[in-house]
Amino acid sequence: MERIFDEELKQLRQDILLMASWAEEEIFKSVEALKQRNKALADEVIASDKKIDELENKIDEFCLDLIAMRQPVAQDLRFITMAMQINSDLERIADLAVDIAQRVLDLILQPVLKPLIDIPKLASLAQQMVKEAIDAFINKDVELARKVVLSDKEADALRDLVQKELIYDYLVKDGQTAPRAVPLILVARHLERICDHATNIAEDVIYMIQAKVVRHHPEKL
Amino acid sequence: MPEIITKNLNLWYSGFHALKSINLAFQEKRITAIIGPSGCGKSTLLRVFNRMNDLIEGVRIEGEVLIDGENILDGDFADLVKLRKKVGMVFQRPNPFPLSVYENIVFGLKVHHLVRKREHDLIVRESLESVMLWNDLKDKLHRNALGLSLEQKQRLCIARAIAIKPDILLMDEPCSALDPQATLKIEELMQKLKKDYTIIIVTHNMQQAARTSDDAGFMLLGELIEFDRTVEMFTAPKDRMTEDYITGRYG
Lengths: 221, 251
What we know:
The complex is a heterodimer of chains A (221) and B (251).
Chain A: H1 4-36, H2 39-70, H3 74-107, H4 118-139, H5 142-171, H6 178-210
Helix pairs in contact in A: 1-2, 1-3, 1-4, 2-3, 3-6, 4-5, 4-6, 5-6
Chain B: E1 2-13, E2 16-27, E3 31-35, H1 42-48, E4 59-67, E5 70-71, H2 80-86, E6 87-90, H3 101-111, H4 120-130, H5 134-137, H6 150-163, E7 168-172, H7 180-193, E8 198-202, H8 206-212, E9 215-220, E10 223-229, H9 230-235, H10 240-246
Parallel strand pairs in B: 3-8, 3-9, 6-7, 7-8
Antiparallel strand pairs in B: 1-2, 1-4, 4-5, 9-10
Helix pairs in contact in B: 3-4, 3-6, 4-6
């Protein structure tokens, strides 16, 4: 039986999808800005943050209205509460894209330190994890969500690799490289944090579908 | 500890199979809600526990209902008065007797010859205090109970039920005739009463079941589909039919 409430849930799903597409776009642009040393693109990312913040508030408010007005239970309750968390994770992802864009603005004022190899790898992993987490949300795909959660270790390893290289091959050998090496270390950290948020989303998707809490419980995955 | 246990309970109204193999354990000093669409058998089940169905023509019951280890459906268990001393009931429409407030409360005490007359005053006071009516009615004890507000009448009926100190309180849609504020007050009263009584409530109102009960059972077409802690049932029901019903998709 179709309920009026179902239309509202569809609307919420659409809003989350819009939020996700914006967040994905911001990651893509910030990474491109880094690779191309493109100031205009980095500025665009920073400017877009406001509209994402606004959408976050709008979605949050909509969720609270639905809880107050419809008193959701069971799968509806899990969907709305997880939508709230996913909304917040997506907004943080967009913030991290802004952080990367700001690092780009620092970096392009200085000569290139080294060719980027592992950072682009980490960037494509981050983009892939966010995309798959959202696909899992749309298609209620537990297997895909599991895959995202399991990818998080790879993200941590790539970040460690980038950090080690920049610290031991550059900072330790020549302190003068710090203004160029530190922003790159931070970019790696921002990308890894994006992967963490994608993991959160995937864990929420598993809870939404199976009512099983896997967050902080990897053994239940 | 379970207060009521049903084993393979079946009930027919002539040819109609109204309860189908119900196996359940109601835990003591908890509130258990029975939910389900109209005609699912929830009120029939409730009425089994104080044998209110006995009077209906053509009723046939099989299985066991154990209260204090005794099968109340047993042929030997003829003592209905004894059963109703243990199991009190509150109905949908408040139904005070057309007597004074005082007489309403001592009615059961007289039927059951429970206490001496001089103790009646004390029990009237205690019962009215339990349902938070004493302050309102202490100077109106000899007024006719039919003159009370709906909410006061329902509280009085609860006071009448608990005056004889039953173990179990059955409530059949106890708030459906009340406005939202009175409903909330009765629900708060239920929370207070569950310290002393095992409460089973039948309700159409899903939010009421979620707000008030510790355990919940969902019935459909005479079958018990799911029985669980209420918090589980309302966040992650195990059966698709329960899910459809509580989210309003059923129909």
